[in-house]
């Protein structure tokens, strides 16, 4: 379903909603295209005219300054016109009103919707109902998917490690609520990573998570043993009140990434985090700012990856 | 010039001689030699030696600036341009074949995104008929007359060779 929705009859990328269903060739094409766009940031005029005359709407039903900003910059660097619309979520305003909002904007000549929504499947829902010339990019939906974040993480890993087939990657923290983790797992498996581990307390793991093709660890020291990449997830503080965890201090004691713990990993292990970081909750400051951290690189790569996805989906780059 | 008499060395020498004269008469100061990817870069590399220009070569990939990407798309693996600031520089822009003029239009657009050059001189190895935009070179290695169904292409980089193909009408 995802593949048929995301690719058109000619096999070109029309929407980018999830990593699931997209083959390795597509993930590599997105990264190759992003590679081309990296140089745009070095120009005096940080723009190329690929999407001149196109209109992109950032339709954010959930606040996210960082993701929205990188999508906005990406669209502007491709010379598109950008509208930012923050729509407050109301309990009764799902289905129909979401569609009404989209249809009204569509009537204004929009070419692409970048959608962030607290409900899983919102971006798919919109993609099923937009006009044939309109593309939808998922900027994070519920607990389901955050495919551009996963792709920028893969892009960062590829920059440093090149060959995914040799890599053991540990994803640590709140796997249960993380759309980023789900997309990362799909991407790493599609790209042929040797082993993907998830490291978390039982309360923060989805039921039957092994079915996603991961090895489960409940102990951080064991989970970090000989890993090439460790991806820390943000612990959402609201989970603390949900009786899923005893306290932030307890979580840090058991699952926080410290310099001492990182010694279990390979000496050239990359430390990643999708941000924003809770220092002293998921990760120690000395590790977040340390020589193995590529956290700020991830942010920069986010613009190139989003430019690539937008250019591919709007047909400015051959798929 | 007939298609049979396209000798690369002669064309390069003609182009180099003309550019040398232009550098003198226009009083170009520390010119920045820029080749358009791919054939233009090969030609610019050879001209750099012949003209004794020490400044590193600029490489321009105009893929993002083409006016036909919405029709033909763009290859996902575009090698990025490598160019210093062009602000107030004398730029010598080099391409292998000047045909419709659209590549040069795109290249000029991109050059200006790296700064405002003081002046730009255009040198091409070979000029053919079929211009669609009002663009003309300052220096050429040679001129050739081809039919609308014919294309001329530089292959290389070692050896450089000009080939003429006949294409089917769209």
From TrEMBL, chain A:
User: Quick one: which residues bind L-aspartate?
Assistant: 94, 179, 234
**Which Pfam families does the annotation name?**
OTCace, OTCace_N
| Family the entry assigns | Belongs to the aspartate/ornithine carbamoyltransferase superfamily. ATCase family.
For this entry, the protein name equals Aspartate carbamoyltransferase
Give the pathway annotation. Answer: Pyrimidine metabolism; UMP biosynthesis via de novo pathway; (S)-dihydroorotate from bicarbonate: step 2/3
Q: Which organism is it from?
A: Methylomarinovum tepidoasis
Record key words, sorted: Pyrimidine biosynthesis, Transferase
Gene Ontology molecular functions: amino acid binding; aspartate carbamoyltransferase activity
How would you summarize the oligomeric state and partners of this protein?
A: Heterododecamer (2C3:3R2) of six catalytic PyrB chains organized as two trimers (C3), and six regulatory PyrI chains organized as three dimers (R2).
Q: Where does carbamoyl phosphate bind?
A: 66-67, 116, 146, 149, 275-276
Write the lineage as a comma-separated list. Answer: Bacteria, Pseudomonadati, Pseudomonadota, Gammaproteobacteria, Methylococcales
**Top-tier EC class:** transferase
- State the function annotated in the UniProt record: Catalyzes the condensation of carbamoyl phosphate and aspartate to form carbamoyl aspartate and inorganic phosphate, the committed step in the de novo pyrimidine nucleotide biosynthesis pathway.
TrEMBL record, chain B:
Ranges for domain Phosphoribosyltransferase come to: 8-141
Q: Which domain of life is it from?
A: Bacteria
GO molecular function terms attached to this record: uracil phosphoribosyltransferase activity
Q: Which UniProt keywords apply?
A: Glycosyltransferase, Transferase
Is-annotated flag, keyword Transferase? yes
Q: Where are the transmembrane segments?
A: none
Q: What is its EC number?
A: 2.4.2.9
Q: Does the keyword Glycosyltransferase apply?
A: yes
In terms of NCBIfam families, this protein maps to:
PRK05205.1-1
Protein name (Swiss-Prot/TrEMBL): Pyrimidine operon attenuation protein/uracil phosphoribosyltransferase
Organism of provenance: Methylomarinovum tepidoasis
């Amino acid at each position: 379903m995802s593949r048929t929705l995301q690719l058109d009859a000619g096999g070109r990328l029309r929407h980018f909603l999830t990593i699931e269903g997209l083959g390795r060739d597509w993930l590599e094409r997105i990264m190759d295209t992003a590679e081309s766009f990296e140089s745009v940031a070095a120009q005096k005029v940080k723009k190329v005219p690929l999407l001149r005359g196109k209109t992109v709407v950032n339709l954010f039903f959930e606040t996210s300054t960082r993701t929205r900003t990188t999508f906005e910059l990406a669209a502007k660097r491709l010379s598109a016109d950008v509208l930012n619309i923050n729509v407050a979520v109301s309990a009764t305003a799902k289905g129909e009103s979401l569609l009404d909002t989209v249809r009204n904007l569509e009537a204004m000549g929009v070419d692409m919707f970048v959608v962030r929504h607290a409900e899983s499947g919102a971006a798919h829902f919109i993609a099923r109902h937009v006009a044939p010339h309109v593309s939808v990019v998922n900027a994070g939906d519920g607990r389901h998917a955050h495919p551009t974040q996963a792709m920028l993480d893969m892009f960062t890993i590829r920059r440093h490690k090149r060959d995914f087939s040799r890599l053991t990657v540990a994803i640590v923290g709140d796997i249960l609520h993380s759309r980023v983790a789900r997309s990362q797992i799909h991407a790493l498996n599609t790209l042929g990573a040797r082993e993907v581990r998830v490291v978390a307390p039982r309360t923060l793991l989805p039921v039957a998570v092994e079915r996603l093709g991961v090895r489960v660890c409940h102990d951080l020291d064991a989970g970090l043993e000989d890993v090439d990449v460790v991806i820390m997830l943000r612990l959402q503080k609201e989970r603390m009140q949900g009786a899923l965890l005893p306290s932030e201090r307890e979580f840090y004691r058991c699952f926080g990434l410290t310099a001492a713990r990182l010694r279990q990993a390979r000496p050239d292990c990359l430390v990643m985090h999708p941000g924003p970081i809770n220092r002293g909750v998921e990760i120690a400051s000395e590790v977040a700012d340390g020589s193995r951290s590529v956290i700020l690189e991830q942010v920069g790569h986010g613009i190139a990856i989003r430019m690539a996805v937008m250019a591919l989906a709007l047909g400015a780059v051959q798929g | 010039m007939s298609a049979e008499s396209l000798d690369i060395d002669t064309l390069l020498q003609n182009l180099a001689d003309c550019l040398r004269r232009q550098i003198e008469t226009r009083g170009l100061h520390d010119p920045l030699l820029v080749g358009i990817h791919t054939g233009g870069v090969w030609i610019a590399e050879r001209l750099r030696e012949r003209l004794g220009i020490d400044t590193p070569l600029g490489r321009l990939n105009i893929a993002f600036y083409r006016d036909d990407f919405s029709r033909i798309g763009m290859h996902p693996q575009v090698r990025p341009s490598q160019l210093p600031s062009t602000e107030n520089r004398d730029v010598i822009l080099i391409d292998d074949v000047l045909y419709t003029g659209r590549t040069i239009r795109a290249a000029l657009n991109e050059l200006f995104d790296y700064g405002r050059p003081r002046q730009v001189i255009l040198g091409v190895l070979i000029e053919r008929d079929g211009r669609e935009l009002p663009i003309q070179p300052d220096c050429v290695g040679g001129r050739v007359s081809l039919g609308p169904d014919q294309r001329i292409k530089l292959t290389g980089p070692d050896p450089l060779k000009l080939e003429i193909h006949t294409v089917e009408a769209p």
